Amino acid sequence: MNKVYDSKSFNELSKKLGVLEKLFIEKCKIQIKHNLRTGKPLRYYWIREKKLGNKRLIYIINVNLRKALLVFFVNKKDQQNSIDFIIYNKEYFFNELR
To answer: What do you get for the CA distance between the two ends of the chain, in Å?
Structure first.
């Protein structure tokens, strides 16, 4: 079984989400626990997303450690900025996974 964690920024964001979004995220966490490679890969295999309407749950995976880190839940228009931010700060996020 894989482990799924929330980043610090995702923790703050999730407090402001509605009931539907929270249920979606919990469902995604269960899916990720069973299969790290669920969701659509974004540019690199270790950045993935799950869609809910026009919102995107963006997370990173580490297959060797069998862990995933939920990073962002953003609109489609903010998706590219989020991906670029993760790639630019990938060492920080991978350190959070350890």
So the answer is: 16
Residue 98: what pLDDT?
Answer: 83
Strand partners, 47: 60
Q: How many Cα neighbours within 13 Å face the side chain of 70?
A: 25
Please give the tally of structural domains in the chain. Answer: 1
| Structural domain boundaries enclosing 75 | 3-97
* For range 9-33, the mean pLDDT: 94
Three-state DSSP class for residue 33: helix
Q: Which strand ranges, in their side-by-side order, compose the sheet holding 55-62?
A: 3-6, 67-75, 55-62, 44-52, 40-42
